[in-house]
């Protein structure tokens, strides 16, 4: 990946936030004190005007042209590199040798490719989904890969996209990024529904309210704003209180409390109804990068660049646990597992760790992605055939990577289940969802795109790896079409004023 | 999910000890938690009902429709519906989903207490001032009222025995003097327990509206009755300044193991202040029924008794005003009470200190100094990669990150996944506007109640009248918080 024009990069890369984490990353093998000092001086030296000016710059007259030229070139280049079809690359690596077997297995609805006698067992267990214990039936073998395929490429953001999330019912996708705009897309069609604008600086995080009516967004302009998806109007009250960039936000399950973590090292609990800080958690001594709330709302987890992950009691506001890994790498994102028993934590040493927070123990370390600099975010998800019951249920952790890939790890074996390629720059956010029985993943990144991936059923898979037939596959057809779309997209990007309204159709590339 | 991390000593504490919060929105006169304990409904002097969110201590919804002081509140089991009764001779059943009125029922007299059936939110009982209590079915828009008897059950004359007309007339005259002050449903709603002005407790069958058992409990007027969550313990406050706990038979066994003639109500404890002869404003059970709490007349304290021995365990120091209604949170050791003078809602709960060892994982809190035993290989130096690899190899657990623990089954399933009052952000929609508005830094002013209020569906005339009352009462007051 060539280093793009600095202006094209995520503005956060230029802002003190990123440069400090940059420092942190670079200094991860340096001494702790050195790192603290570096981040502190960057923090001190920050003048609030800078990011605002940068934000406004690209809306000026001369910069769009500059952007357009370079974006065009960049896109063609990147397309060439990605061609013929980026989607097939992950599959072709191992589907090549297991082609025949997976075809057979498709009938079982199973994805095992290991041994044949397992297949027989699967066929049995498939007929009787609940195996009887006495004859000690072989446990249903686990699929060893996933088969997500690119469904849509959603273009429209003018700069890097930092956060993406499915709405609670998964019918919509909200994305936000450095262009200070929040875009709402339809999951089913990939069309742009609306663009919310109003933030004065880039947006780092967003969250859907549990009732799906509101999108909350946290921005470098230090505010959190609410946007109503039904009325398409912003909330009259801004959530003002943080002294610095808002890094990550999360709702409690009831939606009455919003938790925010900020570069000002504080964690705030907001009373959503009154738009007022309810409680401030004396959280960390470095910027708070990650926030999450457990499914029943009783616990909050926060993590900071000081490498600490803290678990809080929502009701009393007290710290109940602090998790720290020996090497103390800066922690950039945390997520509770769906049942709330574990915490997944991203750290800038290129690891994602699964913690048993009750026992303060790392139980899994996931590696294989690149993470040295950015706050990557990820998610948990389920996989495997829905009609077979596994114990424990098949669960994966998914994360973006700074090399443009999306990685899925099996939670038990730590194996990489799939490596999705498609993004041409750092993948910052990944979220899982399910619409009409189809498992979906949405991702966003510095390449200004939001991509929707759909789990393809196994019977489609044999077509993809065959190199000879690849010309006829729909993906290839699309591969020829996409550059044209790209140009459209880029033109639109260059010509349209940044405040353009919903400009749906042309930005969507269907696969 | 936090139970595994919270200090067990804190969890073991059963009753609150410190005044922690003060909620204020108008002058509250009656309070009631919903069954899951997320929301607290508060009825105000001006007829407005305010739903507080216990988690944020903010106003979740305001319901406007009554024009006089609220007398009682009753939540439906799922927490979606709220029945309010007021001195304006009306009962309103509210749907908290959108704040609308499901039913409005008018009576011929002011209402003491109205309570919803525990499983059917379209059925309630109401005890009326100087009138017969009624069982009201509001399943159709036109309410069906059935009058409940107030008179105690007389022993039936045996066959062949002549009833003396004089005695009968005398009894009828006596019966006419009985009026019912409190009516509540039993746990399953099959029966109604009624307390009368002569100190009698009547058990009335809901289906037939006939009294099946009567018992004279005391000489005074029965002011208030509460059932514990187990449905078998009854708490009675009466005007003779004694709080009684009464053990009830299992009425669901009626007709199976139990005959109406065998029903016995047994007084378990009598709580009273023998020295000062204090009278009790309001009483409540704790969440488990193990404790009895009462506010006292002309006294700012809350008394907490435990029931196993009947001893006084705690007097909650209150604010400097007499307290009215007191309520206990349905699951937590938390008590709320409203001040009679200010109308503020005070909450008492447990304040847990921050454990500093939770902040620093390398440290532990020990009672006394412990000699540290070094592990054999503790300070051995291994290559970093080797350590890392070994660590990775040890990660051989099979975590289940999806399956939920079935811990919740202990609580009522209806209550567990109960209804959540929608979070409203727009003041215009919810009328959840603050009564206190910021004037300057640190200075608050009470918003005039008349301003910005629009009449909720109908009753325009009465609403404007009450608004006018509100202005005269509320204007000019200032408040600092």
Automatic annotation (TrEMBL), chain A:
<dbReference type="InterPro" id="IPR001680">
    <property type="entry name" value="WD40_rpt"/>
</dbReference>
<dbReference type="InterPro" id="IPR019775">
    <property type="entry name" value="WD40_repeat_CS"/>
</dbReference>
<feature type="repeat" description="WD">
    <location>
        <begin position="420"/>
        <end position="454"/>
    </location>
</feature>
<keyword id="KW-0677">Repeat</keyword>
<feature type="repeat" description="WD">
    <location>
        <begin position="239"/>
        <end position="280"/>
    </location>
</feature>
<dbReference type="GO" id="GO:1990234">
    <property type="term" value="C:transferase complex"/>
</dbReference>
<feature type="compositionally biased region" description="Basic and acidic residues">
    <location>
        <begin position="28"/>
        <end position="37"/>
    </location>
</feature>
<protein>
    <recommendedName>
        <fullName>Mitochondrial division protein 1</fullName>
    </recommendedName>
</protein>
<feature type="region of interest" description="Disordered">
    <location>
        <begin position="454"/>
        <end position="511"/>
    </location>
</feature>
<dbReference type="Pfam" id="PF25175">
    <property type="entry name" value="Beta-prop_WDR5"/>
</dbReference>
<dbReference type="InterPro" id="IPR036322">
    <property type="entry name" value="WD40_repeat_dom_sf"/>
</dbReference>
<comment type="function">
    <text>Involved in mitochondrial fission. Acts as an adapter protein required to form mitochondrial fission complexes. Formation of these complexes is required to promote constriction and fission of the mitochondrial compartment at a late step in mitochondrial division.</text>
</comment>
<feature type="compositionally biased region" description="Acidic residues">
    <location>
        <begin position="63"/>
        <end position="72"/>
    </location>
</feature>
<dbReference type="GO" id="GO:0005741">
    <property type="term" value="C:mitochondrial outer membrane"/>
</dbReference>
<dbReference type="InterPro" id="IPR059122">
    <property type="entry name" value="Beta-prop_WDR5-like"/>
</dbReference>
<comment type="similarity">
    <text>Belongs to the WD repeat MDV1/CAF4 family.</text>
</comment>
<feature type="region of interest" description="Disordered">
    <location>
        <begin position="1"/>
        <end position="104"/>
    </location>
</feature>
<feature type="repeat" description="WD">
    <location>
        <begin position="196"/>
        <end position="237"/>
    </location>
</feature>
<feature type="compositionally biased region" description="Polar residues">
    <location>
        <begin position="50"/>
        <end position="62"/>
    </location>
</feature>
<dbReference type="InterPro" id="IPR015943">
    <property type="entry name" value="WD40/YVTN_repeat-like_dom_sf"/>
</dbReference>
<dbReference type="InterPro" id="IPR020472">
    <property type="entry name" value="WD40_PAC1"/>
</dbReference>
<feature type="repeat" description="WD">
    <location>
        <begin position="388"/>
        <end position="419"/>
    </location>
</feature>
UniProtKB/TrEMBL annotation, chain B:
<feature type="region of interest" description="Disordered">
    <location>
        <begin position="377"/>
        <end position="415"/>
    </location>
</feature>
<dbReference type="InterPro" id="IPR019775">
    <property type="entry name" value="WD40_repeat_CS"/>
</dbReference>
<keyword id="KW-0539">Nucleus</keyword>
<keyword id="KW-0853">WD repeat</keyword>
<dbReference type="InterPro" id="IPR015943">
    <property type="entry name" value="WD40/YVTN_repeat-like_dom_sf"/>
</dbReference>
<feature type="repeat" description="WD">
    <location>
        <begin position="63"/>
        <end position="104"/>
    </location>
</feature>
<dbReference type="GO" id="GO:0048188">
    <property type="term" value="C:Set1C/COMPASS complex"/>
</dbReference>
<keyword id="KW-0677">Repeat</keyword>
<dbReference type="InterPro" id="IPR001680">
    <property type="entry name" value="WD40_rpt"/>
</dbReference>
<feature type="compositionally biased region" description="Basic and acidic residues">
    <location>
        <begin position="380"/>
        <end position="393"/>
    </location>
</feature>
<dbReference type="InterPro" id="IPR037850">
    <property type="entry name" value="RBBP5/Swd1"/>
</dbReference>
<dbReference type="InterPro" id="IPR036322">
    <property type="entry name" value="WD40_repeat_dom_sf"/>
</dbReference>
<dbReference type="Pfam" id="PF00400">
    <property type="entry name" value="WD40"/>
</dbReference>
<feature type="region of interest" description="Disordered">
    <location>
        <begin position="430"/>
        <end position="481"/>
    </location>
</feature>
<protein>
    <submittedName>
        <fullName>WD repeat protein</fullName>
    </submittedName>
</protein>
């Amino acid at each position: 990946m060539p280093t793009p024009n600095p202006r094209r990069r995520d503005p956060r890369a230029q802002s003190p936030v990123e440069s400090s984490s940059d420092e942190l990353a670079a200094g991860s093998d340096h001494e702790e004190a050195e790192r603290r000092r570096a981040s502190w001086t960057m923090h001190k030296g920050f003048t609030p005007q800078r990011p605002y000016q940068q934000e406004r710059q690209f809306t000026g007259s001369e910069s769009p042209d500059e952007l357009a030229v370079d974006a065009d070139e960049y896109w063609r280049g990147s397309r060439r590199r990605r061609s013929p079809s980026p989607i097939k690359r992950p599959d072709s690596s191992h589907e090549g040798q297991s082609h025949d077997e997976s075809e057979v297995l498709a009938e079982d609805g199973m994805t095992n490719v290991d041994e044949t006698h397992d297949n027989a067992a699967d066929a049995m267990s498939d007929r009787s989904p609940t195996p009887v214990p006495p004859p000690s039936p072989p446990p249903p073998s686990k699929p060893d890969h996933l088969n997500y395929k690119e469904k849509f490429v959603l273009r429209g953001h003018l700069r890097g996209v930092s956060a993406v999330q499915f709405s609670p019912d998964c019918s919509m996708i909200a994305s936000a990024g450095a262009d200070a705009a929040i875009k709402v897309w339809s999951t089913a069609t990939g069309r742009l529904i609306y663009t919310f604008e109003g933030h004065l600086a880039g947006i780092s995080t967003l969250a859907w309210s549990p009732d799906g009516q509101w999108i909350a967004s946290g921005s470098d302009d230090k505010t959190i704003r609410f946007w109503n998806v039904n009325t398409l109007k912003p909330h009259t009250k801004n959530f003002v209180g943080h002294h610095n960039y808002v890094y990550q936000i999360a709702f409690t399950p009831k939606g009455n409390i919003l938790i925010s973590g900020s570069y000002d090292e504080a964690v705030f609990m907001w009373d959503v109804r009154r738009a007022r800080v309810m409680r401030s958690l004396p959280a960390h001594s470095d910027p708070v990068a990650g926030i999450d709330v457990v499914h029943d709302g009783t616990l909050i987890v926060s993590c900071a660049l000081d490498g600490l992950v803290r678990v809080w009691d929502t009701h009393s506001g007290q710290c109940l646990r602090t998790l720290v890994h020996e090497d103390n790498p800066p922690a950039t994102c945390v997520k509770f597992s769906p049942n709330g028993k574990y915490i997944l934590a991203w750290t800038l040493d290129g690891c994602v760790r699964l913690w048993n927070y009750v026992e303060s123990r790392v139980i899994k370390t996931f590696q294989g992605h690149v993470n040295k600099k950015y706050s990557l975010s990820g998610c948990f998800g389920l996989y495997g055939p829905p009609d077979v019951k596994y114990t424990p249920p098949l669960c994966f952790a998914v994360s973006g990577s700074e090399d443009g890939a999306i990685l899925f790890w099996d939670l038990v074996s730590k194996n990489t289940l799939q490596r999705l390629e498609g993004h041409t720059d750092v993948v910052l956010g990944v979220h899982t969802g399910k619409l009409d029985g189809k498992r979906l993943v949405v991702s966003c990144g510095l390449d200004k795109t939001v991509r929707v991936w759909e789990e393809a059923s196994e019977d489609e898979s044999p077509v993809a790896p065959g190199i000879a037939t690849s010309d006829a596959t729909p993906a290839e057809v699309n591969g020829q079409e996409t550059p044209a779309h790209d140009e459209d997209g880029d033109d639109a990007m260059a010509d349209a004023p940044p405040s353009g309204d919903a400009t749906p159709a042309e930005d969507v590339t269907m696969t | 999910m936090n139970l595994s991390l919270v200090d067990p000593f804190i969890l073991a504490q059963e009753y609150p000890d410190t005044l922690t919060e003060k909620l204020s929105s108008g002058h509250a006169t009656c309070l009631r938690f919903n069954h899951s304990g997320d929301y607290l409904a508060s009825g105000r002097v001006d007829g407005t009902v305010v739903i507080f969110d216990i988690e944020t201590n903010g106003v979740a919804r305001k319901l406007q429709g009554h024009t006089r002081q609220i007398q009682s509140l009753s939540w439906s089991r799922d927490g979606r519906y709220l029945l309010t009764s007021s001195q304006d001779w009306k009962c309103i059943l509210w749907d908290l989903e959108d704040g609308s009125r499901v039913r409005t029922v008018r009576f011929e007299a002011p209402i003491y207490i109205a309570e919803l059936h525990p499983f059917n939110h379209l059925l309630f009982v109401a005890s009326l001032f100087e009138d017969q209590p009624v069982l009201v079915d509001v399943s159709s828009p036109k309410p069906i009222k059935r009058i409940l008897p107030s008179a105690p059950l007389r022993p039936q004359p045996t066959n062949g025995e002549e009833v003396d007309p004089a005695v009968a007339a005398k009894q009828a005259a006596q019966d006419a003097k009985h009026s019912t002050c409190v009516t509540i449903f039993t746990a399953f709603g099959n029966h109604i327990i009624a307390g009368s002005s002569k100190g009698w407790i009547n058990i009335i069958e809901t289906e037939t509206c006939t009294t099946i058992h009567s018992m004279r409990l005391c000489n005074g007027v029965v002011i208030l009755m509460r059932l514990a969550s187990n449905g078998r313990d009854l708490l009675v406050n009466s005007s003779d300044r004694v709080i009684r706990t009464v053990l009830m038979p299992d009425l669901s066994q009626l007709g199976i193991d139990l005959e109406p003639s065998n029903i016995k109500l047994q007084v378990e404890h009598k709580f009273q202040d023998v020295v000062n002869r204090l009278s009790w404003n309001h009483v409540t059970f704790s969440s488990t029924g193990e404790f009895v709490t009462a506010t006292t007349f002309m006294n700012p304290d809350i008394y907490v008794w435990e029931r196993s021995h009947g001893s006084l365990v705690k007097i909650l120091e209150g604010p400097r005003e007499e307290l009215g209604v007191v309520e206990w949170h349905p699951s937590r050791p938390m008590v709320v009470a409203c001040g009679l003078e200010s109308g503020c809602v005070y909450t008492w709960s447990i304040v847990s200190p921050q454990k500093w060892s939770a902040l620093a994982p390398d440290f532990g809190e020990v009672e006394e100094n412990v000699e540290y035993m070094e592990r054999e290989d503790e300070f051995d130096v291994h290559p970093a990669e080797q350590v890392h690899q070994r660590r990775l190899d040890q990660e051989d657990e099979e975590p289940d990150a999806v399956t939920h623990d079935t811990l919740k089954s202990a609580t009522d399933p209806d209550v567990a996944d109960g209804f959540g009052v929608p979070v409203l952000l727009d003041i215009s929609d919810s009328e959840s506007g603050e009564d206190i508005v910021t004037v300057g830094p640190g200075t608050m002013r009470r918003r005039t109640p008349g301003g910005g209020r629009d009449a909720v569906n109908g009753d325009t005339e009465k609403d404007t009248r009450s608004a006018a009352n509100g202005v005269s009462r509320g204007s000019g007051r200032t408040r600092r918080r």
